[in-house]
Amino acid sequence: MFERSRKGEHALLIQPHAGGPPDEGVLEEFADLAKSAGATVAAVLTARIDRPNAAMLIGSGKLAEVKAAADATGADLILINHPLSPGQERNLERALERRVVDRTGLILDIFSQRAQSAEGKLQVELAQLKHMATRLVRGWTHLERQRGGSIGLRGPGETQLETDRRLLQKRVEQLQRRLDKVEVQRTQMRRARVRSELPRVALVGYTNAGKSTLFNALTGAEAYAADQLFATLDPTVRRIELSGGAVVLADTVGFVRDLPHELVAAFRSTLSESREADLLLHVIDAADPLRDERIAQVDAVLKEIGAGDLPQLLVFNKIDRLDGAQPRIDRPGEGRTRVWLSAREGRGLDLLRSALAESLELRHVAGTLRVAPRDARLRARLHELGAVRAERADEHGWELEVDLAIADAQRLFAQPHGESLRPLLEAVLEPDDLV
């Protein structure tokens, strides 16, 4: 099997297409993927394929053209923007005498470089092993002659292959068990957030739309953000305060067209932050000429992971790249609300916070509250929430001027010391909501 270098490689890119001119946006994205993996692009070739060649995907004429271009440019790697069968990949490598990597293998390689957490590394390794399992024979081509049934040719080749397959399957099962344990822990944490009744918001969007930059701007966190594809793999969760109360915000992995199914399966815990959210912040690169197509592609992935029906707030980021664009909110009569902002410059964040509170229907209750000494714990919790605007003490306890989110008030009311909140809640809620 080829040893994968940690350094950049000289790559020749091949873009298959069926009829008509190739999509320039697809070509540009594929080149960005190659650069994100650490490759330098030597040249780009397009290949019209009306009927894929079962043995090599491309025909003999195009194969000769690819070989000549690789020789002329000194490319030591062939990247093909199309899924390849194990046989096609093996045959191409033999014919071109260079390592060949398809789209799935390229994205897996990027993910292996980007994963930082223990969970992320486990997920990437699991996806890589599942992808490798169908291509295991490539590592033992020097033993292929020993697979025959003739006398003197039985044994080592088949035995080594079978041993390797068993070791790989054992490792896959081990990783799966470890990830299942991590998933249980993550589920418990998620249930704790649900019990706290904090609304959950997940940032989703096409890769490199600026999700992590927006996440940092809203939360003050220091999540890794860079102008590259798949800069963020591991989910990051933070609590943020809005005018109507607190919410939990999660940053997630960016989507891309034709996201490999191995990754959708492996990153189920990361993607579950999107699937189990109350609201999705769909972040879009406002300056991307293909932004409408990107929106449709993200919607397709959301549907695939079971999050297609969740409410969305569209966030058009990077307006600093549009001439004369100013932060604003568009509220169409039908369809999704749109917020235009620049996370990098911090413009329009207040509009987004307002739209978030509006979309989540975060409401406040304000008024005067009498708290008896026996309910001192309620007073302490109100101070913790920053809900006390003024306070006066007397022999009967405390008189508090409060302003707090209805969700927080309902949660406190349900606790043993919360009966003092009843007068405030009765003014804004139906009797059934106080039971």
Automatic annotation (TrEMBL):
Q: InterPro entries in the record, alphabetically?
A: G_HFLX_dom, GTP-bd, GTP-bd_M, GTPase_HflX, GTPase_HflX_N, GTPase_HflX_N_sf, P-loop_NTPase
- Key words of the record: Coiled coil, Cytoplasm, GTP-binding, Magnesium, Metal-binding, Nucleotide-binding
Q: Which residues form a coiled coil?
A: 158-192
Skewed-composition ranges (Basic and acidic residues): 1-10
Question: What SUPFAM superfamilies would the database entry show?
Answer: P-loop containing nucleoside triphosphate hydrolases
Any one GO MF term held by the record is: ribosome binding
- What are the binding positions for GTP in this chain? 205-212, 230-234, 251-254, 317-320, 342-344
* Compartment list: Cytoplasm
Write out the ranges of the annotated region (Disordered).
Answer: 1-20
Q: Which cofactor does it need?
A: Mg(2+)
State where Mg(2+) binds: S212, T232
Naming one, the record's GO cellular component terms include:
cytoplasm
Q: Where is the Hflx-type G domain?
A: 199-364
Origin: domain of life: Bacteria
Q: How does it assemble?
A: Monomer. Associates with the 50S ribosomal subunit.
Please explain the role this protein plays, according to its UniProt record: GTPase that associates with the 50S ribosomal subunit and may have a role during protein synthesis or ribosome biogenesis.
What family is it from? Belongs to the TRAFAC class OBG-HflX-like GTPase superfamily. HflX GTPase family.
From the Swiss-Prot or TrEMBL record, give the protein name. Answer: GTPase HflX
The record lists the organism as Lysobacter silvisoli
